[in-house]
Fold:
Amino acid sequence: MKNIVIFGASGQLGSCFKQIAENEGITDIYFPPESEANILDIDALRKVFEQYKPAYAVNCAAYTAVDKAEDEVELSEKINKTGAENLARLSAEYGSVLIHTSTDFVFKGDVASPRTEDDIAEPINVYGQTKLDGEKAVIDNLEKYFILRTSWLYSEYGNNFVKTMLKLGSERAELKIIADQIGTPTYGIDLAYAIMEIINTENTCYGIYHYSNEGVASWYDFAKTIFDISETHVKTLPIRTHEYPTKAVRPAYSVMDKSKIKSTLGIEIPYWRDSLHICINRLLSENQEQRIKN
Structure:
């Protein structure tokens, strides 16, 4: 048995793995609840590793509240760095491969060209720094690891930009969306499938990889496409970053180069608009079913 354990199972990406496991009939993938698998509780984690002896441990747990992290530095550091370090140490002890998710926010975002894995990471906010610290903790404690940096994650699950826009678009006549921050939306189901592809092929080309959907967009482009696909009629106005100040500074350009993951691991990557169509259609279908039930 090639047991797979998902840590952070109740979060957005963990929920995507649950959906895939259900769709594909995967029986050797396990989703221990946080009460049993808190990544900050090394003793509880050891029990999980002892019980399942995972060939692969997938870390989907993270502190992702970018603005709150500026005030909750210690908590962000614990979850994003210490939690990753705990999983890395136990993965080394039990011979597991750790697949750890990170972020495009490790980059400063002041260069308008796609970032490669070899480019210097230089975070400009607490969240990005703690995620980079987590990457370093994994690298320092383990040889068999895949670190996947991703960006602008959304899905049918949890709180994310797509669900927020659909809600606000149905409630308001006008929305102002930032148009000068550039990146790439990533569908959580696509990312989860990419990770499953790495596991299924038993690839041993360990290291850091970039994964987002193909293409480039601003938050304004992203929002406009959400409204177009969902046929949500709301006036959408582009604004500059300085017109919508936030606690944390965001990278202006955080598009990632995916050449390495495609050539080395053979991962095929969908275009962001195509995946967004799939997600929104599923969300609208779920909403329709819920209305019928009610």
Remarks:
- The chain has a mean pLDDT of 94.
